[in-house]
């Protein structure tokens, strides 16, 4: 078996396990405190350009959106600006470890204030927002230890 194929298979199994962890988290707590699949999506987006893996993660994010909000299109409010912005910032700026964390915070703010507050009409509390951002920063820090974010030269090709 090819090493690249084996690594991709391990990432897909990890993505499915992350999806199941998000689903169980929602069913046990009736809300998501840790966006595991979104964190993994941002980490993979900044580490390697595997289109298959990113598309599978995007599919899982859309399935989560369908399970939580009954609208799979709500995930596009997160995926499209973050993917486009991340690709542009990777092209223009030097890569460092703060970029994925900043884009994860943007994902969370879009979810909290655009999807939940504006579209669904629920008003989140400040402690909920702070706890959600803090927990996901810790999760992204863990993913940043496990995922190689590339060189410090940037992608200027």
Notes on the structure:
By secondary structure, the protein is mainly alpha-helical. It has one domain (3-146). Helices cover 75% and strands 0% of the residues. It is built from six helices and no strands. The longest helix has 27 residues, at 3-29. It is globular. It starts with a helix and ends in an 11-residue tail after the last helix. The mean pLDDT is 83.
User: Describe the biggest sheet?
Assistant: none
The dominant shape is globular
Number of strands: 0
- Uncertain regions: pLDDT < 50 for 5+ in a row? none
Quaternary state of the chains: single chain
Based on CA atoms alone, the radius of gyration comes out at 15 Å
Mean pLDDT: 83
Helix and strand element order: HHHHHH
Please give the domain count: 1
Broad structural category: mainly alpha
What separation lies between the terminal Cα atoms? 31 Å
Number of helices: 6
Helix content: over 70%
Strand content: under 5%
Give the SSE map.
Blueprint: H1 3-29, H2 36-47, H3 51-69, H4 76-92, H5 98-119, H6 126-146
Helix pairs in contact: 1-3, 2-3, 2-5, 2-6, 4-5, 5-6
